[in-house]
Amino acid sequence: MPYMSILFDESTLRKLDRLALVASQVRAGAIKGERRSTKRGTSIEFADYRNYTRGDDLRRVDWNVYARLERPFVKLLEEEEDLAVHVLVDASRSMDYGGLVDGADDDEAERHKFRHAQHLAAALGYIALAAGDRLTVNILQGAQTTAQFGPARGRGFTLRLLSFLQTQTPTGTTELDAALRHYALIAKRPGLAFLISDLFAPAGFHDGLAQLQGRGYEVSVLHVLAPEELDPPLAGDLRLIDVETSTPQDITLDGGLRDLYRQRVQQWRDEIDAYCRKRRINYVPVTTDVAWDELVLYQLRKRGLIK
Predict the structure, then answer these.
(1) Are 147 and 139 in contact (CB under 8 A)?
(2) Residue 58: pLDDT band by 50, 70, 90 thresholds?
(3) Which of 3.40.50.1110, 3.30.70.660, 3.40.350.10, 3.40.50.410 is the CATH number of 10-25+81-302?
């Protein structure tokens, strides 16, 4: 069963079309200046050129430059600084959890963590493409990226983006720290970086986030958990199996231990939030019982990540 087998409907696309990703921190080498407006093509003041990319509006090509250099360049106006957007999706096996089971209805299926991550990545990617930003989407598995979409620019790449995400499946482990450090070293254009992950990383992830920031990225973390991971509907004598390492753990789960578990999970999330605040990283706790479009259209806008 595919993890994402539907495209956005026309109503959803119209809503996403009106949005733009916000760069609140100007990073050297990533953005030429403050993005003063989310509108494209309304200013008549020339700012710069960039290389033509498939999907760009041909009306924006400077044909005089093309005649001289025999290479197409697109004019950037004052309000159109070229923003690089990086979406990093954790595809470890721990993301293969939630409502995606045979016979599950649509609402239950949407609670699957990786399906939720796919939709979030698709929505952020579409917003970037529609706004003319330079989009790259990477799948994180093991100690590096295992699949990449882009760099791409323009709405013409929407179907390719959705097809790319649909073919991905969560498997194995992700050494999140190592994968983030690897990406920070190989990626050529710093900009906005959105990490979508459950952050189940025994070796941590703090150094990887710091490495991204050190390379000039403005980082946002979308921390995806299923409701059952916050409050497990379990009781009695149990043997729990780690889905990534197959390590067993025998426990007896009663009301007191469940309360302690809930407290520990909340403490963990609070510690991540405090770390991110200190580092000026945008931290967004996500539970899959909240629809992905509500998260994008309302919560991310409220936090100032989208407008």
Answers:
(1) yes
(2) confident
(3) 3.40.50.410
